[in-house]
Specification:
The complex is a heterodimer of chains A (142) and B (493).
Chain A lengths: L2 H18 L4 H21 L23 H32 L8 H33 L1
Helix pairs in contact in A: 1-2, 2-3
Chain B lengths: L6 H15 L4 H29 L2 E5 L8 E5 L1 H23 L10 H17 L3 H20 L4 H32 L4 H7 L5 H19 L7 H5 L5 H25 L8 H21 L3 H22 L2 H32 L10 H4 L1 H15 L5 H15 L3 H25 L19 H19 L1 H16 L2 H8 L1
Antiparallel strand pairs in B: 1-2
The chains are: A mainly alpha (142), B mainly alpha (493).
C-alpha cells in the first residue's frame, strides 16, 4: 500500500464530490472525471503494488516478484468506459447549452410545480392582505 | 449445450454491428432486429430448459479456468430472467415497429437497442463481479443514447440527470470492486462466495452495504430513486417501456445475487433491507397518487413495486426469496405491458395528461381492456398474476413474523388500486374533452402496437394460470440462491 497514492485517491474523491454538488454542468462533468480517476487509482492500489512487468516467458521463474496485472487490466477497462461516458455527457452538455444558452442544471418537473404552487400561495396571501387592509381602511373611513 | 450460454450476449452484439452496417435501410434493420432477438430468445429458452433439467450451467470465456478467466454462469434464477427479459425486448421491438415515427430519422435506434439487449442478458449470466460492471455499463451506455435520442429540451434535461446519477453509481461500483479485490484478491463471484466469509465482520458489512447502495441506485430503492420518475417519462414509449420493465429489475437481480451469493448468512443486511423495502413501497405509491400524467404515475409505481422485491429478499427465508423471484418475473411482464398500454392511450387520446383525457372507453374498448387487465394485476386483485406474487410475499412475511412490513405492503396494495383507478377514471370514463386525434379502425392504434401489448397481457394471464408450476420453479431457484454450493461447484468444479 502506497500512502501517497492512497492520499491522492482520497483527494480526488473529495474534490470530485465537491464539484458534483455544484449547479454548473461543466463542473459536474469535471467532478465526475476526478472521481473516476480516484476510483482507478484505488483499483491500482488494490493489487500487490510494485513489481516487474508481468510478461510470461518460457522460464517459470520469470513470474517471481512481478506485479499483479489484474487490477491494471480492470483499471484500463474502467478508464475506457468512463472516457466514453464522459464524451457522451459532454455532447449532452453542449446540446443543453445550445438549447438553453446556459450550463446550469435545470429544475425538474416537481421543483417547478412546487415553485408554482408556492408562488400561487404567496400571491393569494398578498391579495388577502390587501383586501383586509382595504376593508379596514373603508371601515375606518365609514 | 453449454456453448449456447454466450448466445444471448453474442447474437445481439453481432446484430448491432450488422444493423449499423445497413444503417440507411430501415426494412433491413428491422428484420435484423426481430430475427436476432427471436434467435436470442430461443437460445434463452434452451438455456432455461437445460438448467431446469441438469442444474447450474457455466462456461469459461476463452477457456481460461475460473477464477482467472471470465465466467458465464446460469442458474435457475438467471435463466428465468433471461427468458422473460429477452421476450420483453422482442415484444417492445415489435411494438416500436408499429409505432409511427418511432425510428424515423434514427438509424442508430436499432443497433443501440440490440446493445441494450446484450447488456441486459450479460448482466443476468455473468459470474464475475467486474464483468457485471462491464455488462451494466453496456446496458447503461445504450440506455443513455436511447433516452436522449430525440434531442428535445425535456429529454436532454432529464437525460443529463440520468447519466450523472448512473455515472456516480458506476464510480461507486468501481470503488466497491477495488475494495473487494483488495480484501480478497479475486472478482470471480463463486470464488468470492468462499473468500468473503474469511473477512472481519465490519469489513463484510461495509462491503455488503456499499454494494446495496451501488445497485440500489440502479434498482431505484428509497432514498436513491428520485432520478427515475424524472427521467423515464420523457423518452418515447418503447424506450420507457423496456427501461421500466427491465433496467430496474437488473438492479434488483444484482442486489439479490450479490447479497445471497457473496455474503454468508451472519453478515446479511436483512433489517436494513426490510426498512428500505417498506419505505420504498410507501414513498413510491404516495408519489404515484400525487401525479397527473400516466407515464409519471406508472414510473412512481415502478419504485413502489421494487419495494416488494426488496421485502422478499430482506426476509432471507426460502419462501421470501421464492416470492421475490416470482415477483420480479411477474413485474417485468406487467410493467412493460402497462407502459405499452400507456403508449396506446397516448396514441389514441393524443396526450398522457389525465386532465386532458376522458371517455376513451367508448372510442377504443380494446385499449381499455389492454390497460385494465395489467392494472388490476398490478394492484394485486385476484385472480391475476400480481395477486399470486403478492400473496406469496405476504405469506412469507407473516411466517417470518415481520408484521410491520406486511401491514405496509397491504396498505400500499390498496393505495396502488386507488392510483390505477385514478388513471382508469381519468382516461376511460367521463367526457371526451375533444382535441385528440381522430381514432381510426377498431383497435384504435396500429396492429403491431396492439398485438405486442396484447401478447404481454396474455403472458401475464398465463403467469396467473400456471402460477403453480412457476411457484415450484421459483422455489427451486430460491433454494439455489440460499445455498450457493451448486453455483460454486458449477463454476470452480
Amino acid at each position: 500500500m502506497n500512502l501517497t497514492v492512497a492520499v491522492l485517491a482520497g483527494l480526488l474523491y473529495a474534490v470530485g464530490t465537491w464539484l458534483v454538488l455544484q449547479r454548473r454542468l461543466t463542473r459536474i462533468i469535471i467532478g465526475l472525471g476526478m472521481m473516476g480517476h480516484g476510483a482507478n487509482l484505488l483499483l491500482l492500489q488494490a493489487g500487490d503494488g510494485r513489481g516487474r512487468a508481468p510478461f510470461v516467458t518460457d522460464d517459470p521463474s520469470s513470474l517471481a516478484d512481478t506485479t499483479d496485472p489484474l487490477p491494471q487490466a480492470l483499471a484500463l477497462t474502467a478508464i475506457v468506459i468512463t472516457f466514453g461516458v464522459t464524451a457522451l455527457l459532454l455532447a449532452l452538455a453542449y446540446r443543453s447549452w445550445v438549447l438553453t444558452c446556459d450550463d446550469l442544471v435545470e429544475d425538474d418537473v416537481e421543483d417547478r410545480r412546487i415553485a408554482r404552487v408556492d408562488a400561487l400561495v404567496r400571491d393569494r396571501e398578498v391579495a388577502d392582505q390587501a383586501a383586509a387592509e382595504a376593508e379596514r381602511a373603508s371601515e375606518e373611513a365609514g | 449445450m453449454r456453448w449456447l450460454l454466450p448466445a444471448p450476449i453474442v447474437l445481439p452484439l453481432l446484430g448491432a454491428a450488422l444493423s449499423m452496417a445497413v444503417a440507411g435501410r430501415r426494412p433491413l434493420q428491422r428484420s435484423i432486429g426481430v430475427l436476432i432477438l427471436l434467435a436470442s430468445t430461443a437460445a434463452s429458452v434452451a438455456i432455461l430448459v437445460e438448467v431446469e433439467a441438469h442444474g447450474v450451467q457455466s462456461v469459461q470465456a476463452g477457456a481460461w479456468e475460473a477464477p482467472i478467466g471470465i465466467t458465464l454462469v446460469a442458474d435457475l434464477f438467471s435463466a428465468m430472467l433471461l427468458v422473460v427479459g429477452n421476450l420483453m425486448v422482442l415484444a417492445v421491438l415489435v411494438y416500436s415497429l408499429g409505432q409511427p415515427d418511432a425510428d424515423r430519422h434514427q438509424p442508430a435506434f436499432h443497433p443501440v437497442y440490440l446493445v441494450l439487449a446484450a447488456g441486459v442478458s450479460a448482466s443476468f449470466i455473468t459470474g464475475d463481479l467486474f464483468n457485471l460492471f462491464v455488462a451494466f455499463e453496456m446496458m447503461l451506455i445504450a440506455s443513455y443514447v436511447l433516452i436522449t435520442m430525440g434531442g428535445t429540451r425535456a429529454q436532454i434535461r432529464s437525460g443529463i440527470t440520468y447519466v450523472v446519477i448512473s455515472l456516480l453509481a458506476s464510480v461507486l461500483f468501481i470503488t466497491a470492486v477495488a475494495f473487494i479485490y483488495a480484501a480478497t484478491g479475486t472478482v470471480n463471484m463463486a470464488d468470492l462466495s468462499q473468500r468473503v466469509g474469511e473477512l472481519p465482520d465490519g469489513l463484510r458489512t461495509a462491503l455488503a452495504l456499499l454494494l446495496i447502495v451501488v445497485f440500489g441506485v440502479k434498482a431505484a430503492i428509497f432514498p436513491l430513486f428520485s432520478w427515475l420518475p424524472d427521467s423515464y417519462p420523457t423518452a418515447p414509449t418503447p424506450v420507457t417501456a423496456i427501461f421500466a420493465g427491465l433496467l430496474t429489475k437488473v438492479g434488483i437481480y444484482a442486489i439479490i445475487r450479490t447479497q445471497t451469493l457473496l455474503f454468508p448468512p451472519d453478515s446479511r443486511a436483512g433489517t436494513v433491507l426490510l426498512v428500505v423495502a417498506a419505505l420504498t413501497m410507501a414513498v413510491g405509491v404516495l408519489g404515484a397518487i400525487a401525479q397527473d400524467d400516466i407515464k409519471r404515475i406508472l414510473s412512481f409505481h415502478i419504485v413502489s413495486q421494487i419495494g416488494y422485491m426488496v421485502f422478499g429478499l430482506g426476509l432471507f427465508t426460502l419462501a421470501g426469496l421464492a416470492g421475490a423471484v416470482l415477483y420480479v418475473i411477474n413485474q417485468i411482464v406487467l410493467k412493460t405491458a402497462l407502459f405499452l398500454a400507456g403508449g396506446l392511450i397516448e396514441h389514441a387520446g393524443g396526450d398522457s395528461q389525465l386532465s386532458r383525457l376522458g371517455g376513451l372507453v367508448h372510442r377504443t374498448p380494446v385499449i381499455a381492456a389492454l390497460f385494465l387487465l395489467p392494472a388490476l394485476s398490478l394492484a394485486g386483485i385476484p385472480p391475476f398474476s400480481g395477486f399470486v406474487a403478492k400473496l406469496a410475499l405476504v405469506e412469507a412475511g407473516a411466517d417470518a413474523g415481520q408484521w410491520a412490513v406486511v401491514a405496509v405492503s397491504l396498505a400500499v396494495s390498496a393505495l396502488t388500486l386507488f392510483s390505477v383507478t385514478k388513471i382508469w377514471g381519468g382516461t376511460f370514463w367521463g367526457d371526451d374533452p375533444g382535441g385528440g386525434p381522430a381514432v381510426t379502425g377498431r383497435l384504435g392504434a396500429p396492429t403491431a402496437m396492439v398485438a405486442a401489448t396484447g401478447a404481454l397481457v396474455v403472458l401475464s394471464l398465463v403467469i396467473a394460470v400456471f402460477a403453480g408450476p412457476l411457484w415450484d420453479l421459483s422455489e427451486r431457484a430460491a433454494v439455489d440462491l440460499l445455498d450457493p454450493s451448486a453455483y460454486v461447484e458449477a463454476v470452480l468444479g
